Amino acid sequence: MPHHHPSEEMLLGYAAGSTSEPLSLLIATHLALCPECRRKVAAYEALGGKELEVEAPAMLSSDSLVSVLDRLDTAEEPAMAPPRPSAEGDLRLPRPLRDYVAGSLDSLDWHQRGGIAEASLLTERSDFKTRLMRIRPKTAIPEHSHHGSEYTLVLTGGFSDHTGHFLRGDVAIADPAVQHRPIADAGEDCVCLAVTDAPLRFTGTIARLLSPLLQR
Amino acid sequence: MGSNAKVASRAVPDELSELLIAVAVHRDRKAFIRLFEHFGPRVKSYLKRLGVNDSEADDLMQEVMLTVWRRAEQFDHRKARASTWIFTITRNKRIDAIRKERRPELDPNDPALVPDRDDDPSEAVSANEWRAAIRKAIDEVPEEQARLLRMSFFEDKTHDVIAKELDLPLGTVKSRIRLAVAKLRRSLEDLR
Question: CB A29 to CB B104 under 8 A?
Answer without folding.
Answer: yes
